[in-house]
Structure formats: structure tokens, C-alpha cells
């Protein structure tokens, strides 16, 4: 377990630092009307998202110009993800893949069984054939995810929360799916400050579960603060 991850988890609940196995079969209860954190978390999201958009406006404008000059395709890509309560939404990113990315990936995995096995296990590829050269830099620095600040403002996402997943990935969460579905997915989270792709998918699920079970405003602020060096140093980014 990476140090930042271990320290943060241990601070809030020492017994979870060793990642105990998931236990019990539970079903998400749709009776929960308010996402984890409620009004306090939503107020923090709106305040910091607006501030972020203002401060990052020059960088966002520069990225828009560079991307349009180097690629004639759509600027943004909205992938369908699952949010609070199982609601589907479009998670926005600067487009970092070729236009026909789904087809390219399907053909690549068909030709490379070992890569297909890795994709099925982690939903990640180190050398993703869909990613353009310039976009690889944006992904490494997580700059492609800046448009998700709009998802935060619309209430589909939070600044901090579980990593947004597609519907098929909920199978990987097993009994922890109910924890994922009780929160808004996050622009950042424990996974992002814990090595990202250097962690296993099971560790990612357990981190999401831990976050939901132990949320408080100070945890969110600490994760946001720790996200900055994690992004700058590109820890676990592929």
C-alpha cells in the first residue's frame, strides 16, 4: 500500500489500513434521497468548482486552442457513467482518443489476448491504442478531466468521491456497489492520491467503500490538497 494511502486510511480508521476482505451481500437501497455529505458537501463542491474554473480559465482556454489546432474532431467527449442512485450521466473530458476509439480498442484486444485479459481485470491499458500523442501528456497530468468541473456544478459529480464507473464495472464492486451508489462520483478521491493505476481494482473498490463509510468535510479537504502533488508528479498515471 502506498504511504499517502496508508496514512490517510489509518488516520480515520486504523482497522481498515490492511484492506480487510469485503464481506456480506447487500443491495443498494434507493430510499436514500441525499448523497453522502448532503448540503455541506454540495456547498463545498460549488464554491471550489467555481473558484477552480475562474483560476484555471487561462489554462483551459490554452488547452482548447491547442486541441483544436492539432485535431479536427470534437473537443469534448462525454462517456456514459453511473452516478448517485444508479443514474446515468455523461462524464465530460477533453477528447484524448481517436474518434472511432471503441472500434480501435475492440480490434486491438482481439489481436492481443494478454492485453484483453488486463483490460477485463483493471479496465486500464498502459499503452492504450486509442490515445493520441498529445493527449497522452494531458492524461498523464489529468488535464483532460478539467471539463468535469462542469459535472460538479450540475450536481452529477463531486470534487471528491468514488471514481466514476460504467455500468458493467459495478459487477466488480460486488457488495460494495451500494456504497458507490450512495455517493456522487468524484473528480478526485482516495484512488487518485494512492497511485491510481499502480493499485489493483480490488484496492480501488475498498478505497471507495472506505471513503463513503467514513466521509467528513476534513477528509474531502485533505484529499483535494493531496491531489495537487499527486497530479504534478503523475503518480500511477497512464
User: Considering DSSP H and I runs of 4 or more, what fraction of the residues is helical?
Assistant: 40-55%
Beta-strand content bin = 5-15%
Radius of gyration: 18 Å
Shape: globular
User: Mean pLDDT, nearest integer?
Assistant: 81
Q: Extract low-pLDDT stretches.
A: 1-6, 12-31
What string gives the helices and strands in order?
HHEEHHHHEHHEHH
Task: Compute the number of helices.
Answer: 10
Q: What is the CA-CA span between the terminal residues?
A: 19 Å
Keywords: Cell membrane, Exopolysaccharide synthesis, Membrane, Transferase, Transmembrane, Transmembrane helix
Main location: membrane
InterPro entries: Bact_transf (IPR003362)
Family: Belongs to the bacterial sugar transferase family.
Summary?
The chain has 238 residues and is mostly helical. It is built from ten helices and four strands, in the order H-H-E-E-H-H-H-H-E-H-H-E-H-H.
Amino acid at each position: 500500500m502506498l504511504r499517502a494511502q496508508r496514512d490517510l486510511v489509518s488516520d480515520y480508521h486504523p482497522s481498515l489500513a490492511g484492506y480487510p476482505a469485503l464481506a456480506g451481500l447487500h443491495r443498494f437501497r434507493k430510499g436514500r434521497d441525499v448523497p453522502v455529505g448532503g448540503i455541506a458537501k454540495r456547498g463545498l463542491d460549488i464554491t471550489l468548482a467555481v473558484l477552480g474554473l475562474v483560476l484555471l480559465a487561462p489554462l483551459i482556454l490554452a488547452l482548447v486552442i491547442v486541441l483544436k489546432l492539432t485535431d479536427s474532431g470534437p473537443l469534448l467527449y462525454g462517456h456514459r457513467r453511473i452516478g448517485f442512485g444508479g443514474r446515468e450521466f455523461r462524464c465530460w473530458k477533453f477528447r484524448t482518443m481517436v474518434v472511432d476509439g471503441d472500434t480501435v480498442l475492440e480490434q486491438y484486444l482481439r489481436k492481443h489476448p494478454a492485453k484483453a485479459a488486463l483490460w477485463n481485470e483493471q479496465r486500464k491499458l498502459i499503452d492504450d491504442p486509442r490515445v493520441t500523442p498529445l493527449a497522452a501528456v494531458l492524461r498523464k497530468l489529468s488535464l483532460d478531466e478539467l471539463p468535469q468541473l462542469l459535472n460538479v456544478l450540475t450536481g452529477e459529480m463531486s470534487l471528491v468521491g468514488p471514481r466514476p464507473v460504467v455500468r458493467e464495472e459495478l459487477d466488480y464492486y460486488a457488495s460494495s456497489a451500494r456504497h458507490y451508489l450512495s455517493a456522487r462520483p468524484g473528480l478526485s478521491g482516495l484512488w487518485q492520491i494512492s497511485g491510481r493505476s499502480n493499485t489493483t481494482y480490488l484496492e480501488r473498490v475498498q478505497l471507495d467503500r472506505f471513503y463513503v463509510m467514513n466521509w467528513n468535510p476534513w477528509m474531502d479537504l485533505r484529499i483535494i490538497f493531496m491531489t495537487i502533488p499527486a497530479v504534478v508528479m503523475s503518480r500511477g498515471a497512464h
